[in-house]
Amino acid sequence: MRKIEKEFLNQLDKSLDYDKSYNDIKDKIYVSKFIDEKETKPKKTKVKVALASVFLLLIMIIPISIYFASVPYVSEIIIANEEDLVTEYQRNCRFIETGIIVDKKMSNGKIVRATEKEVIVNYDSFDNQKAGIYEIFVYLKSNVETKTSYKVNVTNDEIVSIELKKSRTTYYVGESINSKDLIVEKNLSSGNKIETKLTECTIDDSLYNGDQVGIYEIGVVLNSNSEFTLTYDVDVRPISELDISGKYGIIDEMYENTPPTILAMEIENDIAQVYYSEIIISSNVTLKKEVIDGNITISDSKHNQKMRFNPFTSIMTITGLMRGDPDMIGFRLDEDDYLISLSGAFASNGIKLVAVDGRLSSNSIQYLNNMYGGVYLDETMDVRVTSETMFTSDSVVIVGSKPILDDKKPYLGIYYREEDGRVIVKIEEDALYYTGGTKAYKYYLEQKDNGDIWIRTSINEPILHYILEKDIIELWTNDSLYEYSVKRVNPQNHAIVTIIATYGSRYQFVVTKGEKFPTQVIAKTNITFYTIPGYKNNPIMEDVTFTNVTISNVYMSDISSRIYGEYDDYFYVANSWTAGRDFMISSYWYARIKNFEIIDSGWIEFYDHKNGISILALHKDNGEAEQVYFNWSEKKFTIGEEQFTHNATPFKDFDFVDNYIGEDGSEGLISDRGMIGIVEKNEHSTTISYETIYIISLTNEEVTFLYIYQNDKDERELKYFTATKENGIWRFVFDGIKYTQVINK
User: Fold this and answer.
1) Count of alpha carbons within 13 Å of 593, Cβ hemisphere only?
2) Quick one: which of 303, 375, 445, 513 has the most CB atoms within 10 Å?
3) Of all helices (H) and strands (E), which one includes residue 10?
């Protein structure tokens, strides 16, 4: 019986009372901890048997389920480090059977690393006196039928000597000698030189003390022939002397789709040049270095952002801009990493990608294709790159769209968004105009195999996908995320209304001829009002321009993040986002809370607006819909027969409303406005963050709050924290930090 099953039965036994029914004791059994986390569909059952029978049934079922469980077995084995194994031997060299790493592929698809004791290496056929190809077999002791093999070649050459081609000679306190830190060459009787593989040498570091500064001798023994050895010296120095100079790469997480690896920073003589906007360490300022817990902590004595350099991994960890932001992980480029610069129509932003170990990753290639239209290795754009590519030095690639030679231009025209009638783009022979504006953009075209055409003006503007079959244009962000589609204007049926606002901005809208121009436009999250002098709602029959137009808006954000009603009976709206593969939706989430319980929730949008009252649609989580009303002058919701007026100070009567001090020195505040604020200070800057909070349980000595949290996947998440009162003092933990009420103010 497994431990978890024993624990379940023990807990059931402790709760056992044969005078009570199962329903009387079920709450004492914490079943959730015994449920497989992968179980996502709860099963509903009716208990119709006596408790003793349930207990007996459990005892009977559990062993049976164990017996019939599907036990994964090894389906095949794989040599995981074949590139490190010696595959070419010289005469008189013994076979190296150690250092072979084997992975077991299980029947359930998982990969498990085999231990050295599980593996047998059969090299019976190997003959170091006879040139030829020999097959080496590797199999499991537990099952000789589960095996794999690789081939080695014995040559007529002989080893004359070995020499150190390259080695790392400077180490810092705490580091160990690594076989990857040196390259050993074999000198052969033929005059050839061959580099040894990782498994071919053993390092003798018996005289080395990495915990103490000094010079130490390191020995190297050739595993295939122990007659060949060499020694060299290494110097162990204090970590404080570590040189952090170099170029640092980082995965650009600001680019949401297929993030590339880019050059983020360069340090020389303790002065940084920063190329990545999320790193706010100052350029051209001498960095301050401190040794803390074996790492070098680096700052510029100006910002609260710090960097920690691990001398053993060459990893630079950069703290987030604000508390809660994830750390950024940079790495120092070595001699095998190359910088890839860009050339082309849009390549003026100076970005440099990193080919790690010479490889420009498929993510980086995809980024270039999405952002610039294509990546090429030649000026004529004949050699296009679409997958991971190898480079042997710093290089320049050409980015942009290869010109279309076809004279057909089906994409020319004016396009509008059907949802609100707004003109989005106008494409002429030699210029493109956005959203009814007058600024002309030069554009570049790329034709796809199916006849579709991608149109770009710059990397900062949307990518226009002209879809030939549908005769529409799709707008995609510059990181290749779909936004929306626009349709072509038909001059026979459509008239264009140009609006010139009182503040000078120019907008264009498409109206079907014979229809009125809508002076009130309703979207999900806002309502726009157009006050047009002289316009009397007459039908539009031809293109027309209205000047001196007053444009006003009401927004869902104007009514969100506020409590309407009392702290224990209220309605509220919160802004939130939902991210998907090809979209990100900004929406508004509502909840109706009564007696500290959410009795209704869903998402909310504008539906209509009349005489200063907005009609909103509640889309309930249960699939139903309901209309509610918001009176702008009274700041009041009407929901059915109930009314909820904006309450600016819902927590005004509670003694937990006060100042707090965090254990990390930050300051906290729970305000009567229903907010929690956190203030972090240091000698250089102050960071302030706040959240709207809602009470969901309340006693004299304990209160639990709810707030809306946007997680790192840009998904809405409900989070909670609880404040408790002990000896007259309130305390709570928020974002991992403990806060205590300030008594002596």
Assistant:
1) 21
2) 375
3) helix 3-14
Residue-wise pLDDT for 263-302, tens only, equals 989 998 888 888 888 888 888 888 887 776 666 788 887 7
> Per residue in 162-205, pLDDT tens?
999 988 888 888 778 888 888 999 999 999 999 999 889 999 99
C-alpha separations of 704 from 199, 708, 738, 741, 742 in Å? 59, 14, 15, 16, 20
**pLDDT-based confidence at residue 485 (cuts at 50, 70, 90):** very high
Question: Exposed, middle or buried by CB within 10 Å (0-12, 13-18, 19+), for 341?
Answer: middle
Task: Give dist(CA 233, CA 560) in Å, integer.
Answer: 68
Planar angle of CA 119, 122, 128, nearest 5 degrees: 135
Which own/partner contact pairs does 355-358 have at CB distance under 8 Å and 24+ positions apart? 355/389, 355/390, 355/391, 355/395, 356/249, 356/261, 358/390, 358/391, 358/392
Locate 524 and state its tokens. 């999900």
673 and 649 in contact (C-beta within 8 Å)?
yes
Extended strands (E) in 477-540? 482-488, 494-501, 506-512, 520-522, 526-531
* 603: DSSP letter: E
Q: What is the C-alpha to C-alpha distance for residues 677 and 299, in angstroms, rounded to an integer? A: 27
Cα-to-chain-centroid distance, residue 350: 24
Q: What letter would DSSP give residue 710?
A: E
The 3-state secondary structure of 102-156, one letter per residue: EEEEECCCCEEECCHHHEEEECCCCCCCCCEEEEEEEEECCEEEEEEEEEEEECC
Return the SS3 of 187: strand
pLDDT in tens, 660-680: 999 988 899 999 988 898 887
